[in-house]
Specification:
Layout (H helix, E strand, L loop, with lengths): L12 H13 L12 E6 L5 H12 L3 E5 L1 H4 L3 E2 L12 E2 H11 L2 E5 L7 H5 L2 H9 L4 E3 L7 H14 L6 E6 L9 H10 L5 E5 L8 H4 L3 E3 L2 H5 L4 E5 L21 H4 L3 E3 L12 H4 L6 H20 L4
The protein binds phosphoric acid mono(formamide)ester.
């Protein structure tokens, strides 16, 4: 049994991108593969795209789908070993993961970072404990530190649009009123390490990502310099990693505008706050790829599920 927990579970990104693009041409081709199989989608956090695209992907493969908003419908889970459970938690992950495994052939999980305990977040307590105690494959639908289905989607979208053998791709931080996790940015950076591209991350000082993830990547604090001659600009907010989970400032000078974007294609995972992260004029322009990205979520998820069902992951 293999899990899909990280973008690093993809053995050949280029090959997977090609396969996903083929699925997109005929999404119903493998309708028999998931017949009599069930996927359980467990959400500890909100979702629009991940929930519906993963459900659509499973349906394209002929699977039955069960969805549970675990965060407010399930029993509060305990993850500690040997805990005396006389406080807030009602059920231990050891039982919960084994029980759900009896109902499902694949379990997909969304469990965001708390952003108030770096050690616990980096331990991926929810995802890793499901992977440890479940008896079926686990799929990461965004965890504390990664969003591999989004990053794989982004690789598909880049492949569909890049016209140069070595495009310039910029990951640009943007302001946001709330503290957001690092998962999307982390997985995008990890995915970019498998791309033939000039890759630059730009953000204000203090918003450095985990240096273990960005090791070897060019970081440019001058956004204008970073954006010069870019082919693709991926915009994303994240909170501080060093001052863990803090919003240091919301400098509107970092909002993406048509002037800054120039001829580059605009990418964002969505949901996005208009006129805070990015100007209306960018999102409403033909340079925006965000709706195509959201569409590609289905084919990224479908390929991952297909490989698990074929035991090819
Ligand atoms: N991009 C993304 O994961 O969207 P949702 O949070 O709506 O699932």
């Amino acid at each position: 049994m293999k899990h899909f927990l990280s973008i690093n579970n993809i053995d050949s990104l280029a090959a997977w991108v090609d396969e996903a693009r083929n699925l997109k041409v005929n999404p119903q081709a493998d309708k028999q593969l998931g017949s009599n199989k069930t996927i359980g989608l467990l959400f500890f956090n909100n979702s629009l795209r991940t929930r519906l695209s993963t459900q659509k992907a499973a349906m394209n493969l002929g699977m039955e789908v069960m969805v549970m908003n675990f965060g407010n419908e399930g029993w509060a889970l305990e993850y500690g070993d040997g805990t005396i459970m006389n406080e807030g938690t009602s059920e231990h992950i050891k039982e919960a993961a084994q029980v759900v495994s009896q109902y499902c052939d694949i379990i997909a999980i969304r469990a965001f970072a708390s952003l108030n305990n770096k050690t616990q977040d980096e331990a991926e307590v929810v995802l890793e404990n499901f992977a440890k105690y479940a008896t079926v494959p686990i799929v990461n639908m965004e965890s504390s530190t990664g969003h591999p289905l989004q990053a794989f989607t982004d690789a598909i979208t880049l492949a569909e649009h890049h016209q140069k053998s070595r495009p310039k791709i910029v990951l640009s931080w943007a302001p946001h009123p709330k503290a957001l996790p690092h998962a999307v940015a982390n997985s995008f950076v990890q995915m970019m390490q498998h791309q033939e591209a000039e890759f630059i991350i730009t953000h204000p000082e203090g918003y450095e990502l985990n240096p273990e993830i960005t090791k070897g990547v060019t970081i440019e604090y001058d956004q204008a310099k970073a954006l010069k001659d870019a082919d693709f600009v991926y915009v994303k907010n994240w909170s501080s990693y060093h001052s863990y989970g803090q919003v240091l400032h919301q400098n509107p000078k970092w909002t993406m505008t048509t002037e800054k974007l120039g001829a580059a294609k605009f990418m964002h995972c969505l949901p996005v706050r208009r006129n805070v992260v990015v100007a209306d004029a960018v999102l409403d322009s033909s340079n925006s790829l965000v709706i195509e990205q959201a569409n590609n979520r289905t084919y990224a998820a479908q390929l991952v599920l297909k490989k698990i069902l074929e035991k090819a992951l």
